[in-house]
Write the structure tokens for this entry.
Amino acid sequence: MPYRFLPEDFERKYRSVWVDVPHHLFDAEKTQGLYQEFLDELEFAEKQGFDGLCVNEHHNNAYGLMPSPNIMAATLTRRTSQAALVVLGNSLAAYNPPLRVAEEFAMLDLLSGGRLVAGFPVGTSMDMNFAYGINPATLRDRYYEAHDLVMQAWTRPDVFAFNGKYTQVRYANIWPQPLQKPHPPVWIPGGGSVETWEWTAKLDYVYCYLSYFGYKRGRATMDGFWEAIARVGADDNPFRAGFLQLVCVSETDAQAEREYFPHVHYFYQKCLNVWEGFAEAPGYRTVKTVQSGSRAQVGAAARKARQSLDWGQYVDQGYIIAGSPKTVREQLTECIKSLRVGHLMVLLQIGSMPKELAFKNTELFAKEVMPHVRGLWPGYKDRWWPSGARNGS
Amino acid sequence: MAVGRAERVLMPDERRIEIRGGAVTFKVLAAGRGAPLLYFHSYHERSAWSPFLDLLARSFSVYAPAHPGVAGSAGIETLEDLLDLTLVYDELLGALGIEHVHLVGHSFGGMVAAEIAAVFPARVKSLTLASPLGLWRDDAPSADILILPADELAAALWRDPVSRVALDWAVGSGGDPDDIAAQVESLQRRSSMAKFVWPIPDKGLQRRLHRIAAPTLLVWGDDDRANPVIYAEEWQRRVKGAALRLLPGGHMVLHEAPEAAARAVVEFAGP
């Protein structure tokens, strides 16, 4: 949910879109309309037949205007009736006490009639360490403890005492409890950290890679997850995995370039313009993850890689999947197959894209692409889909 | 070692000292003779024997432990917070058989030395703080030295960032994504410090400073851009009778003016 009104020279004049992006660039009058557009777009997607609607959490950020995804999801519970509400998610370490997440997710699950997917990201370093001031040395530890508290609050039959290192609650006892039993499906959005793969695999959750850089670069991360799955001896059900891909559909390949290039370019050059110092607080990634060769998605190296990309490069290098329905169908099928992804998330509103174009992209995708990329995993059961939502897989 | 000096004669011993049943291991460089002096380094220099320490070792038995997490000192993951770090240094003194000690600390090391002097006032014979972190003023925030990219960091730390001494003593920023080893070294160094000071290096020290009993000397570079001289006034206001020596240099004043800094310590605390 990007702020669409950054100045043309933003990335040359300001060092970062995240953390210390100047306030004077924010126009409240224009932004009130943006929120309505975001919601219109998500509601439109349900009508077009999408199985789920995703919302996520970011802070201090002109790229994502959604510090509270729960507020957006709450309005969607009243204006939609079938789609899963995929909240990806609440950054657990940021809530004090984390029981707040257990409570709000339970409310959303009840409000939506059991359509909630509960996403628990660690959160980016920009959001957690810089915007919220959480110590990078203890962020993961806090996250794991908060997760344990939330899951216990959802599943233990009685009032219990929780004696944690970061949270102590003498009487843990949330009212309400979620509708889905034993609890809403849990999806873990990750950015390629080794620890998260293994933890997600062990707990039998869905692992989602929310990549800005497309399926070709996402391969190493998803392979790492599948290797972790093999190590814990779990089955290779593709519905264990989710992947986010930027997609632009138009009548022809050439028309896609004409219509979408400015907005894609806005996204990569402005919305990901993060100052190197903010890319990663020291200690956010563990030594083990750094040694694995995983790299930050933003910062100086990432910026260098993105600079002066033209349409051909965005497409050829797989940052985006774009073109005619036929082109998009072929590449998305390759994406789904090569990454072994059961839950495909598509980003259809990109950068400065206005509502009419987002609608067009959504409609063309639903009509011309979606039917062809469903059902690619026959014989596998999706055990991670909310019981109250429509399931077209 | 690139810092060659004709007058440098001492070769420090390198010791490994385990405490807490091996949960924390310190690498300690030691040399010299005289009353014991413990030196705490900043996280923004190579953790090695320096000309400043060499000069001090002519008047003191100098012990220079590396902070847990860097340069062969291990066990940072077992430490909870700044209080735990303070306790572990008290335990290190015990393991070294030192009862009373002169403390010298630089930058983050100054913050640690001040904590020890406040929590264990009876142990400390004198306290020398070179541009210590640990206090905060909204009107003059200290530089965010944990996250600055290499070129901006050097400009914040050193009066002359391209001087010989700056190039010799600076640590790598880990900015090259292809150099994994340098990234890991930089990450360990900065994340170890971050554990104790993130996101603002005010961890309540001001409420404990009144406990300091030792005579205290503040040493500051007159051109300190990372931790501006205005903080020296702040320390003087809070530590009774603290003296101030301004020396020509930046935040890394102990490296930029080692002779003057060592002379100041010896005059203040020496035999």
